[in-house]
């Protein structure tokens, strides 16, 4: 007997009654302000810079939203010992987890879609202000960029859920997610930049070994840095799209599956007492 | 009531008095560290650093910061258009030609569809280094990449080969046009200083031409221009970098960057 649908709607009602809608509102305000500020400061490429800033703001605020959502839907359950109610009856914990995860994912993807539409509208406005030599793209490249971003956020979501079901303290989720995001997104650009700027680590390590060691992280963490393909949208040029994108996407999806499997296993094994 | 009194007293204060010192000490952090600082987002790092560079003060101490900031942006996101455009004006024409070349080379590689970095690079190579081969290669590249300006670039390339360019006047025109189109006041000011610097060079070269025509011998010592009353005084370089007289021609002096 599947309680998936009931759990799903319950999850949505939890979200609706939380303060998170206000948080989404503040994030969208941040997006608008960031956009406006960057338009003022660009001499020759207003639409490009403001779209770039828009992407950056979305990439920074969405993990925070994910953490808050996961705290709300998962963390509270364990904090307030509500599991005494929800897990007391013979029902599948896996279904419970999947339904709540699906709530979080659908909210995240919906908010991402809304923000993308807003960003696209703002970019159209910025394009009308000044005719750029190289225009931004609002067609397929833009959609691909947003799609890759959605994949990135899916990884973050599943990780947050894993941390929430395995953590004993609530703050662990926030720190864990932010730390993960920071490292997973930065190790690829870091490796590239260190190749060009070895002097930064020359004082205490052999730059090549340092760079190769960081490169080994690719086997532990998903390569979220490579998923940032915004250059195709910023400069309207598919040449910036990696040729092995299919491998990249499937590797990331595999990582999501691994984390999901882990969360289910941890939740089923966890003793509440 | 207390709150109203607080607001009144704050608004009546003369908080604008005191010496207004422009922020001169700013640090340009290296590219890899910035990439981490901005959450692994090198585009955000590039944009913010580019804004910091463009908005930095025009005081002399800020020039090194401006130089380093533009170079870091070039490493973080070489395709950044504002960075190479403003960076070229600020660096190449502000006494840091080598760094300007680096900036433009990165832009040429990343923005493979854009003719302007190639053209600026070619022009600068000719103006500062008299490197005709490199200049022609770059301008030809610009001609290939351009749709609207291909013919103009090709004829420029031919003129380069013939040695037939009044490059100081051309450079002055380009900088003045950029200055007139700039919307930001600080940017206008920065470009204006470079335009004045070029006007000074023009003045010196014209004075040398007049001297050589009048006395029928080549100029060996710049002081002769003053003693023979061709000009009243040497022009002031608003950037403080100055001019040098080398190989019997006046040039823009290059900054010694550590």
Major sheet summary line of chain A: none
The largest inter-chain interface, given as chain pair and residues per side, is:
A-B, 40 and 33 residues
Report the β-strand fraction of chain B as a percent range.
under 5%
Radius of gyration of chain B: 22 Å
What is the typical, i.e. mean, pLDDT of chain B?
84
Our count of domains of chain A comes out at 1
Report the uncertain regions of chain A: none
**Structural class, judged by helices and strands of chain B?**
mainly alpha
Classify the secondary structure makeup of chain A into a structural class.
Answer: mainly alpha
What sequence of helices (H) and strands (E) makes up the elements of chain B?
A: HHHHHHHHHHHHEE
What helical percentage do the residues of chain A reach?
A: over 70%
The biggest beta sheet of chain B, please?
A: 2 strands, antiparallel
Estimate the global geometry of chain A from the Cα principal axes.
Answer: globular
Q: What is the end-to-end distance of chain B?
A: 59 Å
Number of strands of chain A: 0
Task: Give structural notes.
The complex is a heterodimer of chains A (273) and B (258). Chain A has 273 residues and is mainly alpha-helical. Chain A has one domain (4-269). Chain A is built from 10 helices and no strands. In chain A, α2 (20-40) runs parallel beside α5 (93-129), α5 runs antiparallel to α10 and α6 (140-166) packs across α7. The longest helix of chain A is centred in the middle third of the chain and has 37 residues, at 93-129. The two termini of chain A are 26 Å apart. The model of chain A has no long low-confidence stretch (mean pLDDT 86). With 258 residues, chain B is mostly helical. Among the domains of chain B are: 27-111, no CATH class; 185-252. Helices cover 64% and strands 3% of the residues of chain B. In chain B, β1 and β2 form a beta hairpin. Mean pLDDT of chain B is 84; it is low at 17-24. The chains are: A mainly alpha (273), B mainly alpha (258). The A-B interface holds A 38, 41-45, 48-49, 52-53, 55-56, 59-60, 133-134, 181-187, 189-190, 193-194, 196-197, 199-200, 224-225, 228, 230-231, 234-235, 237, 239 and B 30-33, 35-36, 38-44, 47, 51, 54-55, 75-76, 79, 81-82, 85-86, 111-114, 116, 182-184, 187.
């Amino acid at each position: 007997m599947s309680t998936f649908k009931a759990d799903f709607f319950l999850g949505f009602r939890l979200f609706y009654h939380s303060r998170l809608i206000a948080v989404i509102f503040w994030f969208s305000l941040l997006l608008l302000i960031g956009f406006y500020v960057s338009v003022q400061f660009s001499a020759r490429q207003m639409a490009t810079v403001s779209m770039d800033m828009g992407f950056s703001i979305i990439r920074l605020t969405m993990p925070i939203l994910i953490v808050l959502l996961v705290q709300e839907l998962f963390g509270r359950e364990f904090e307030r010992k509500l599991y005494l109610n929800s897990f007391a009856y013979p029902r599948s914990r896996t279904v419970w987890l999947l339904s709540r995860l699906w709530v979080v994912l659908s909210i995240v993807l919906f908010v991402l879609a809304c923000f993308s539409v807003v960003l696209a509208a703002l970019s159209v406005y910025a394009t009308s202000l000044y005719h750029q030599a190289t225009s931004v793209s609002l067609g397929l490249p833009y959609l691909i960029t947003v799609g890759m971003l959605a994949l990135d956020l899916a990884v973050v979501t599943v990780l947050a859920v894993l941390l929430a079901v395995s953590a004993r303290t609530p703050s662990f989720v926030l720190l864990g997610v932010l730390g993960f995001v920071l490292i997973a997104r930065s190790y690829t650009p870091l490796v590239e930049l260190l190749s060009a700027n070895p002097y930064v680590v020359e004082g205490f390590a052999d730059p090549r070994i340092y760079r190769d060691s960081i490169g080994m992280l690719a086997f532990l963490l998903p390569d979220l840095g490579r998923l940032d393909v915004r250059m195709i949208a910023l400069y309207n040029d598919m040449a910036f799209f990696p040729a092995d994108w299919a491998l990249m996407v499937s590797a990331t999806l595999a990582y999501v599956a691994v984390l999901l499997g882990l969360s289910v296993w941890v939740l089923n094994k966890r003793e509440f007492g | 009531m207390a709150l109203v009194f607080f607001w009144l007293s704050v608004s009546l204060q003369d908080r604008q008095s005191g010496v207004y010192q422009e922020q001169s000490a700013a640090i340009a952090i290296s590219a890899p560290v910035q990439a981490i600082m901005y959450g692994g987002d090198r585009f955000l790092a590039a944009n913010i650093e580019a804004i910091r560079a463009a908005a930095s003060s025009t005081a002399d101490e800020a020039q090194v910061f401006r130089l380093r900031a533009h170079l870091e942006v070039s490493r973080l996101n070489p395709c950044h258009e504002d960075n190479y455009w403003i960076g070229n004006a600020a660096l190449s024409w502000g006494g840091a030609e080598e760094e300007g070349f680096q900036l433009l080379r990165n832009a040429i590689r990343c923005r493979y569809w854009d003719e302007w970095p190639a053209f600026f690079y070619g022009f600068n190579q000719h103006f500062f280094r008299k490197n005709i081969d490199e200049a022609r290669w770059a301008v030809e590249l610009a001609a290939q990449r351009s749709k609207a300006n291909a013919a103009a670039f090709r004829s420029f390339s031919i003129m380069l080969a013939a040695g037939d360019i009044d490059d100081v006047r051309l450079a002055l025109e380009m900088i003045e046009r950029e200055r007139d189109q700039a919307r930001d006041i600080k940017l206008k000011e920065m470009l204006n200083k470079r335009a004045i610097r070029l006007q000074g060079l023009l003045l010196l070269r014209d004075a040398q031409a007049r001297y050589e025509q009048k006395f029928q011998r080549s100029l060996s010592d710049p002081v002769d221009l003053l003693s023979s009353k061709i000009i009243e005084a040497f022009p002031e370089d608003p950037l403080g970098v100055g001019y040098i007289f080398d190989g019997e021609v006046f040039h823009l002096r290059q900054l010694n960057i550590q």
